[in-house]
Every structure is written in C-alpha cells, then in structure tokens.
Amino acid sequence: MVKYIGKRIVYMFITLFLIATVSFFLMQSLPGSPIASYSKLNETQRAIVEKKYGIDKPKPVQYAIYMKNLAKGDLGTSFAFKGKSVNDLLASRIKPSLILGAQAMVFGTLVGILLGMLAALKQNTFWDYGSTFFAILGISIPSFVFASLLQYWIASQWHLLPVGLWNDGWKSSVLPSLALAMGPLALSARFIRTEMIEVLSSDYITLAKAKGANGFEIAFKHAFRNALIPLITVLGPLAAGLVTGSLVVEQIFAIPGIGEQFVSSIMVNDHATIMGTTLLFSAFLIFIIFIVDILYGVIDPRIRLSGGKG
Amino acid sequence: MRNEFEHEQLPQEEFERITIDSDQAERIEKPSLSFWQDAWLRLRKNKAAVVSVVVLLLFLILALIGPHLNGHAGDAQNLRHANLPPKIPGIEKMGIFDGVGNLAGKKVDLYEMKKVDEYYWFGTDGLGRDLFTRLWLGTQVSLFIAFVAAAIDMVIGVAYGGISGYYGGRTDDIMQRIVEILIGIPTLVVVILMIMIMDPGIMAIIIAISITGWIGMSRIVRAQTLKYKSQEFVLASRTLGSKDGKIITKHLLPNMLGIIIINTMFTIPNAIFFEAFLSFIGIGLQAPDASLGTLINDGYKVMEHQPYMLLFPALVISILMIAFNLIGDGLRDALDPKMKD
C-alpha cells in the first residue's frame, strides 16, 4: 500500500511536470504575443516591458526560470493585470468557484442519490421512469444550455433571482450552482439506481426480508450503504465535469471565479495566467483521482491496487 | 362432471394414429439466432432506443436537406430583414410562429412593419440570415465533427489497445506507462491548449477532441484482448497454424466488436458537447462558419430580445445528445451479454 501510494505520488509529479513543460512551450508557439496590446510602444519601450516580464531572454532560460519559480509555488506575473502576480489573482478568485463547486456537488449528489434510490425501490413504475428520464436529461443537456435557459426564465423573465454577478449574497449562487449541479445529479442518480437494483437482488437482502426487517430498514441499512461505496468511483469524472462546467457557467453568470478568469485570459493571450490556471485545474483533478483510487482501495479491499485505475 | 362424461363419448374414428418419426424428434423448432440477431431483437424491444434512432435519422436527413428547404442561403445577409421572429406558413394562424415580436415592449407583427413577404421559419439573426438554414448547416458541421472525431478515437484506440494487449511484455509495459501519464492530464486542459495553438476551424477541433479521446477506448480494447487471447479458441487457432493477423481479425475483433460499438456510441455525444463547448466560450469555430455551439453562443448574446435564436439550437443539441445517449444505453443493454435475461 505504502509502495503503491509512493508510486502514485511520483506519477502525479511527473504528470504535473509534463503538463507544465508542454503548456509552457505551447504558450510560446501561440499566435499573438501577450504584449500585442502594447503595439504603440517604440523599440526602447518595448525592450523595457519585455525585460520587466522576463520575456527578453532566450526560451530555454525562460523555461528554466519558470520551472524554478514553479517549484517554489510561484506562478509568475500576469501580463494583462498590470503586474499582479498570478498567485494573488487566482487566490482572489478561488472563493466563488469553491463555493459554487461545493454547493453543486453536495446538492447534486444528495438529490441524485435520493432519485436513484426512489427509482430502484419503485422499479418499473412512474417514479422509476420519471427519474431515469430526468437523469438522461441531466447527462445530455450541456451545462451552458441549461445555464442560459435558467438565466433567461428564472432571472430575466420572472425576476426571481439575480441575473448574474457575485454581489447579492447567497442569491447570486443559486442559479449557477443549480446549473452546475445537473451533471452530478444525473450521474449519481443513474449510478445509485443500477447499484441498488443489483444489491436488492442479492442474498443478504433476501435474508433481511426473511428475518422480518421492514422496507425502510432494508432500503437504508442494508441496500443503500452497499450501493453507496461504488459511487466514489464516479467522483473523478464528476470533478472533471464540474471544472469544465465552471468555465462556461461562471462566464454566463459573470461570476468572478477561476473559470471565468481562464476564459478571459485566453481571450487576451495572458500566457502566465493561462498556465497558472491550467496547472491549478490539472493539480486539482489529478489529486481527486489519486484520492479516489486510495479511498477505493481502503473501502473495498477486494480491489487490487496494483491494477488500480489511473 | 358432465364434461368428463362427454369426453368419454367421443367416437373412435375421431382419433388418428401417428407414427413417431425419429428424424423429427431432434428437430429444433426455432432457428437459432446469431449474437447480432439476438442483440437486434433486444434492441428492438427498447422503445426509448427505437424512438431515438428514428429521431436521429430525421435529424440527419434534416441536416442534409434542411439548408435547401426554404430557398434562403445560410450566408445570405439581408439587413432589411434583420432580427425577424419565426413565422411558419399554416401554423401562423394559431397564434404562434406568426412573426409577432417585441418592439419597445409592444407586440408588433414585425413582418408587416418591415414589409417582408417571405417566411423565415425560425426567424433571422442580426444580419438578416435565415436561422432555419443556418441551424441545419450548423447541425451538419457539429455532426460531422462528432462522427469524424469518434471514428479517429475508435481507430487509434483499437489499434493502440490491441497492440498493447496482444503483444504484451515490454511493448505493453512501455505503452501502458505512456497511457498512465496521459490519462492524468485533464481532457479539458489538453483540448483548450491544442485548440489555442492551431488555426481555428473544423480540423483543429477534431484534432483537439481526438488527441486524448482514444485513451478510454484503448484501455477497454486492451483489457478485452488480454481476456480473449488466453482462451482456448485462440490457442486452438494458433495450434492450427494461424498467423497473428488472422487471429486478430478472425477471432479477437469479432468478439470485441460489441464493446467497441458501445464505446464509440458514447464518444459521439461527448464530441458534440466538446465542439459546442469550445465554440460557446469563443475558441471553437469562427464566423462565418456555423455550428450548434456558435449558434447557441450567438443566441445567448441576444436572448433577452430574440429568445428564439437561443431556443432552436439549444433544442436541437439537447435532442441530439439525448438521442445518442439513449441509443448508447440501448446498445449496451442489447450487446452486453452480462445483462442478458
């Protein structure tokens, strides 16, 4: 186990190192320069600006400097935001993203689990078909379509909640969280339904019934707990979906979060910020997958870690 | 009581003696079904999948002929006809799709006001382009990207996974180490980075989507290859002198075909989503090309005043995604022998 964790940690760092390297050189080959907006500058001024941001040196030197700073946790200086450090920039924007992500995750999985259980316990009834249909909708409809429709009807037609921005307390977070929650909701509903149906047909459930346990007890105490374990495996895809979703949903609702930052940095060719955000997203997702693999091995010893999913 | 009595009264000549034909005793009444016939029967019983196939075929046909249906070209701009709401002949009398839109908070028949005689079934955009034509042109592009990306994923994934699993040993070791590193890189990040360094366009999107898309397929194919290559029928074939190529094409691939099809079926909606996603955040297709993503993006910008511009493409993409997912589900249930009842 310790050996496995050690190996995985080494892999995580290799992956991050590769992402950093590849994205650094991809950034360099991008069409358009980060200082394109300084085109009015003359040669001397341009040289001063380039020196200030360290882009006057040869590429390999820039790379070495970037990697050295990265090892210390320094993501460099933003080109677009008047010399602000990328670390500060991201730190100031992480809170809304975290709040939305957490709310979407908690709300989505809870409701999803309930729907999935309902569907499994009342198999082949109206409830089953209803929640299965709902889950298919949640999986199929892209988050940005759902987000724009929510914004159109609930915010701009019925004026129930703010159209966007992050200045109205919890009210601002309701619609974006809902839009983000659709994915986790649908995924966990489907997953729990399949697992519950499988568990409900197993011998120990028959035994519990024979013993005289009532339906509620069987559903929650016996079936649900065993159906819940495999849900951990979808945590990885869920987190990836949330990050993807946050890019568009934050843009739609004008939330000052990491996703919105990423998209706007791409638009202005702000290399340092794009790289910083890329690394932050990657680190987050790699870490989640790592945790999932470890947790899975701990919870279910039947899983052979050596063959664990990467 | 009375009935039983009647039976006893049946006349002798009503009965006929039969001879037992030993040839017929072993006859099988129902023709035995091949795996694919069996799967087809199961798929046909799945109502959701059948409806989805019909809807999908309808959309495919519309995507092909839709742009030519109403005589408006997709890139023809006519500023005099800009921002017209939908108007469909026949249905207009029912009070919907009658060309009535909002103008400064009042309901006005914009067609009458602008003296437009033509019908724009799904309305026009800010440049006066016909949205019905553009919608199906966009669907065409989105589907094209999705199909090509899924095909590339399938070819690379099957080849990579097959080679890795079949040859095993050192080859497998090296190939799997590479996959282990690649799989750690979030798809989204790779796709966005790739798309940024390439010239925007259909090819760039396809390459960006396929660059990591094949990994899932390769892992599944590798696992399947490992499972089958150690089974007796492969050993038997090898003993009879079959070459690797024949074993792969005759024995391994036919067995894996089901799972490959299922996986490809789920790659398609994924590719549709990624294309739309990229176009929506503004780094996908560039104007004047249209895809479902760019149409949704255009519609989103003006949804306050011309909600129909968002609604139609949003509906089409949602229905397409639902149909593909339902067909994928249906195929999985039909082809996966574990679910066999």
From TrEMBL, chain A:
GO terms for cellular component: plasma membrane. Keywords: Cell membrane, Membrane, Transmembrane, Transmembrane helix, Transport. GO terms for biological process: transmembrane transport. InterPro entries: BPD_transp_1_N, MetI-like, MetI-like_sf. It is found in: Cell membrane. Residues 94-296 form the ABC transmembrane type-1 domain. Pfam families: BPD_transp_1, BPD_transp_1_N. The chain crosses the membrane at residues 9-30, 98-121, 133-154, 174-192, 228-254, 274-299. It comes from the Bacteria. It is a multi-pass membrane protein. The keyword Secreted does not apply. Gene3D superfamilies: MetI-like. Belongs to the binding-protein-dependent transport system permease family. This is Oligopeptide ABC superfamily ATP binding cassette transporter, membrane protein. It comes from Sporosarcina newyorkensis 2681. The lineage of its organism: Bacteria, Bacillati, Bacillota, Bacilli, Bacillales.
From TrEMBL, chain B:
It comes from the Bacteria. The chain crosses the membrane at residues 48-69, 141-166, 178-196, 202-221, 256-287, 307-328. It is a multi-pass membrane protein. GO terms for cellular component: plasma membrane. Keywords: Cell membrane, Membrane, Peptide transport, Protein transport, Transmembrane, Transmembrane helix, Transport. One of its GO terms (biological process) is peptide transport. It holds the Pfam family OppC_N. It is found in: Cell membrane. Residues 139-328 form the ABC transmembrane type-1 domain. SUPFAM superfamilies: MetI-like. Belongs to the binding-protein-dependent transport system permease family. OppBC subfamily. This is Oligopeptide ABC superfamily ATP binding cassette transporter, permease protein.
